[in-house]
Amino acid sequence: MLRLIGIKKINIAVFISGNGSNFKNLIIDSLKKRSKYNIKLVISNNTTAKGLKYARKFKIKKKIINYLNKKNAEKTILIELKKNKIDLICLAGFMKILSKNLIKKFGKQIINIHPSLLPKYKGLDTHQRALNDKQKYSGCTVHYVNSRLDSGKIILQKKVRIFKTDNSRKLAKKILKQEHILYPKALKKVLVNL
Ligand code: GRF
User: Does the annotation count 180 as an active-site position?
Assistant: First the structure.
């Protein structure tokens, strides 16, 4: 167990593949006065991930991982995590599934944000699937990561009402806005127990 004594902050690595709006949002939260964590590293499997611009802007170390060979990719990831003394991983739109081996070898907590009310709509295309099923609500979930996709213990969820006029794009936008509130909140909850 890690103790949050004095000024010791938790080192976090954020994993992204795309826009990185959650990444940016976590950086901003980490810069608040009472924040108990640093975003120390960003890892992306995608060289052209738009979110990488926030690494430049906020001077966060970035590592791009070539995923042609998953075993090698994860080997490199584990080295980087160790080198940067990472205490916790936040997945934020990372489009690769972490292997059992990586999860075990890292040995510390990994959390993820998913744009649905889990256990509903694991995987991709969550908004369209919720609309197709004529759901009244969707939302977002922050959960612990285990070796099964979107299946770890739930930390926090936020419900979002679906209106008849919503399409997938509108719903995604509404939910993303809530994600930006939920992720820092869930992280706080996790850090209290570290
Ligand atoms: C978010 O909707 C997140 O829930 C999902 O991927 C999206 C990432 O968005 N896992 P962004 O890259 O953080 O803007």
Answer: no
CATH 3.40.50.170 domain extents, the chain: 9-107, 115-194
Question: Which atom number of ligand 1 is nearest to the Cα of residue 23?
Answer: 13
Long-range Cβ contacts of 76-82 (<8 Å, 24+ apart): 77/43, 77/102, 78/102, 78/105, 78/106, 80/13, 80/41, 80/43, 81/13, 81/41, 81/106
**Tokens 């959390």 map to which residue?**
111
pLDDT of residue 2: 53
pLDDT in tens, 105-128: 999 999 999 999 999 999 999 999
The domain made up of 115-194 has a fold known as Rossmann fold (3.40.50)
* Superfamily of chain region 9-107: Formyl transferase, N-terminal domain (3.40.50.170)
